[in-house]
Design a protein that fits this description.
Elements lengths: L1 E3 L10 H8 L7 E3 L1 E4 L5 H7 L5 H4 L4 H17 L12 E5 L7 H8 L8 H14 L4 H10 L5 E4 L5 H14 L5 E8 L3 H12 L2 H7 L27 E2 L1 E8 L1 H7 L6 E9 L13 H11 L10 E3 L6 H15 L8 E3 L2 H4 L5 H16 L1 E2 L23 E2 L4 E8 L3 E8 L5
Parallel strand pairs: 3-7, 4-5, 4-6, 10-11, 10-14
Antiparallel strand pairs: 1-8, 2-3, 6-8, 9-15, 12-13, 14-15
Helix pairs in contact: 4-7, 5-6, 8-15, 12-13
């Protein structure tokens, strides 16, 4: 696993960096009108981790390119793989992308260019920048070039569930024998100026929204100018962040042949949708999240084998509502009280596509250490939360071999991933 995420001082790159943040409930969000998680990756940091990239291409990298290449390089280093040898030649390179903010500048620069006033060399520069950056396949393009891969290389775009869906596809490709290794990256950028302008617009739109609001939509429009607090009684806002997270998935046989270290197993993944006609709403019963979990469990595992869930709460009370209803339905009213369910979105911000890979990485680290990390920024658990969100800034001991991670996308999309320890059967 490897990362390029906001950090308290320097960016988070390694599993050790990640654990030092989440195990203490540290938030890396900073406020400038709105709260935001910024990576602050310098050119020196990038060059140290991804050396010898031809300037002709590197000069036109967006932050999405840089973040995705850094997290991939860090994950491969953690896995004992060399991105610049032939270690990944036959690997699948799977990328999850949700937002388009990183692509806008390149798109507009070529759209607004005047061919009559543009020199041939400038025209070529614009062309290269546009080809690398104007589509959601941007990061997959440069990752494929860096590794000189000949295996499958494609992007899935379904917002905050993007890399979670790619983890499921990677598992399927490995199980079917298509590849031995799949590198899965989630990466997104959010334009801070855009978020600030949205906040100003929404402040004047609340009364109109109240008049047109329909079932399944929250009573308040989102706010970005207070600190996000998942599962807390004061939760009333969302903070965004940027960055990238990468996982290297590998068949057990291939990993054992090369002596590779493994954190755990991806046992199953399922994706569902609420089936609502409203493209912005979700069903707060949590029925389709329940369906996704049961599809993962199938007839092989039982829900009482899973004492921990990594939730996908971003501080939105609607998300907390359907998560609470779903786990109550799954575990039962009595058993759900003992469930540990936490979210670390408050550490780095709601970062979109990286969330799936990040949730898997965090959960496997917790499983490995036997410690569940607290829900970042949760200090006063909401009364309607039926599970234990582990408030505060200290980890909670838990010996567990199975866990779920949840991810969601606007429009009622749900993803569940069942994880197991290396020894789980």
């Amino acid at each position: 696993m490897g990362f390029c995420l906001p950090g308290p001082i320097c960016p988070v790159f390694t599993p050790e960096d990640l654990w030092s943040v989440v195990s203490q409930g540290i938030t890396c969000l900073s406020q400038d009108d709105v709260y935001y998680g910024a990576v602050h990756l310098t050119e020196q940091m990038f060059n140290a981790r991804v050396p010898d990239v031809p300037p002709f291409f590197a000069n036109h990298y967006t932050n999405a390119h840089r973040f995705g290449l850094v997290s991939m390089a860090e994950a491969c280093r953690d896995a004992g793989l060399d991105v610049q040898s032939d270690d990944l030649t036959d690997a699948a390179l799977l990328v999850g992308r949700g937002g388009v903010d990183a692509n806008i500048d390149s798109y507009l620069s070529i759209l607004r260019a005047d061919p009559r006033a543009t020199s041939p060399i400038d025209a070529m520069e614009l062309f290269v920048a546009a080809e690398q950056a104007v589509s959601p396949s941007d990061v997959a393009l440069v990752q494929g070039a860096l590794t000189r891969s000949v295996g499958p290389c494609f992007t899935v775009s379904c917002g905050c569930a993007s890399s979670a869906v790619q983890v499921g596809l990677a598992r399927q490709m490995i199980a079917e024998g298509q590849v031995d290794i799949a590198v899965v990256t989630g990466v997104d950028i959010f334009n801070v100026q855009l978020i600030q302008n949205i906040q100003r617009l929404l402040r004047g739109a609340q009364s109109t929204y109240d008049a047109i609001r329909s079932d399944g939509m929250p009573s308040l429009l989102p706010s970005f100018d207070a600190l996000m607090r998942p599962y807390d009684r004061r939760a009333d806002c969302i903070n965004h962040g940027e960055g990238s997270a990468t996982l290297v998935l590998e068949s057990r046989e291939h990993a054992e042949r090369r002596g590779g270290h493994h954190y755990g197993q991806v046992l199953a993944q399922a994706t569902t949708r609420d089936g609502l006609a409203n493209p912005l709403a979700c069903d707060d019963t949590g029925n389709q999240l329940v369906a996704a979990v049961r599809r993962c469990l199938a007839d092989r595992w039982r829900i009482d084998q899973v004492p921990y869930v990594h939730g996908g709460s971003d501080g939105n009370v609607v998300v907390t509502a359907f998560e609470s209803n779903a786990v109550t339905e799954l575990y039962g009213q009595a058993a759900v009280d003992d469930l540990l369910m936490t979210s670390q979105e408050g550490a780095f911000g709601h970062n979109g596509a990286p969330a799936g890979c990040l949730g898997v990485a965090l959960t496997l680290l917790m499983m490995q250490t036997g410690e569940v990390c607290p829900t970042t920024n949760c200090e006063q658990p909401a009364e309607n939360v039926p599970f234990d969100p582990v408030p505060g800034t200290r980890t909670r001991p838990l010996d567990f071999d199975y866990a779920f991670t949840f991810n969601y996308q606007v429009g009622g999309m749900k993803s569940a991933i069942l994880l197991g320890s290396p020894e789980a059967s």
